[in-house]
Amino acid sequence: MDEFEGLKREVERLLDMVDSENSDCEEKIAIQEEVGDLPSSSVAVEFLEDEIDRKEEILLAASCTLLNMISGLDHSFDGNERDMGRLQVEEFRAACLGHKVLVNETEEQTFERADLIRTLWQKKILDSVRLAYLQGEKEMPFRPYDQTELEALKTDSGEKVYRLVRKGFREARVAVRTSVDFKPWDLEEGRECTLSELLDQLQALIRGRIRRHA
Q1: What DSSP element (H or E) covers 192?
Q2: DSSP secondary-structure letter at 185?
Q3: For residue 142, what pLDDT is reported?
Q4: How many Å apart are CA 96 and CA 159, to the nearest integer?
């Protein structure tokens, strides 16, 4: 299933609810209290995307907190795939291949475009992190970017590129908040480790220590 299908269904549900004649719907009232009247689908999508980002941040921050507390959960691998807030070249190129701006665009041209976009937004992410550190802040603004620029990126370069950039900012916010520079990593799978997997590892560590002291 496409990773954004759930979001699309939620947007449709929200819009149906807002357009419903049942103005006393408790869920509708709660959302309107949060964001006011929703005049368009773009506002609804923006609200839901922000909520998803906040929930993803909570999970990532929890994982980073575990890494800070329990060194045994971390591994020695420190490749740049683990860098919080780093936009990965291969991911960007693959995303741009799926959204060509010209019908006859060659793969080389697509890669050049992907690299230019990645470089531009990587600088914005790093600048936001540096500014927070220079100001002695332990939190980055939720939106340290121009929202209209990000929306233009989605229009011009597609949903996947847009999602990768939002993920980069999300990781940067968590890195500043937790002082953790590396994402939790699964060495065997060669990918980011989930909070659930970290908790499983934690249980295994505890069981191992109990056996050693038994």
Answers
A1: strand 191-192
A2: E
A3: 86
A4: 10
